[in-house]
Amino acid sequence: MEKKRIAGEEAAKRIQSGMRVGLGTGSTAYYTIVEVGKRVREGLDIVAIPTSRETERLARELGIPLTDFRSCPRLDLTIDGADAVTPDLQLIKGGGGALLREKLVASISDELIIVVDDSKLYDSLSGLAIPVEVVPFAWETTATRIEQLGGRWKLRERNGEAFITDNHNFILDTVFDEVADPADLARRLKLTTGVVDSGLFIDMAREVAVGTAAGVEWRKKPGV
Ligand SMILES: O=C[C@H](O)[C@H](O)[C@H](O)COP(=O)(O)O
Question: Which phi and psi angles does 160 have, rounded to 5°?
Fold first, then answer.
């Protein structure tokens, strides 16, 4: 938790008054949001869009002013967590099921900063769980199509029932043994009828704050 806390808090320092900010979801982004709430009470003047109902609840509790996509079609910065980060900053997200709103918010952000602890760093995405959000209608057919792409899958459950996302969809937790080209896999998943989106975030993050036992290390996208 300490590593997540230092990463989350360090990234929050990038937020300045006047910014329009995307607020991520999960146990690491939580620390960013709490820090933002503290700074708002001290006078930080921002508006924010949350990436999940859970984050929206937390932001409201903390008194962070919220806005919406119509009033605020672009954001300056989004800070969010991730389940896996490669050396070239390709990501897996959606461990908490928030991937679709997270991707929508990241897609309108000039900058996406990711906050993780060092357990999330991987050399490649091969063999890791990739959440895929699918519409409930004919989800078994969608799952078969994912198998045809080479993935194994498991329907995510909570308390013995299918897990339902904030957008009223299901999550298939998929595993592809060999992910040589994450961008290609993301494209193939996206083109699969029944798939809403995948937790593969390709070329979206520019910087990652990694919490380690020695402090926070910043990783930048190679060439940026
Ligand atoms: O759906 C959830 C999000 O993508 C989270 O940002 C991701 O799962 C990382 O969460 P945590 O910081 O709790 O490990």
Answer: 75, 0
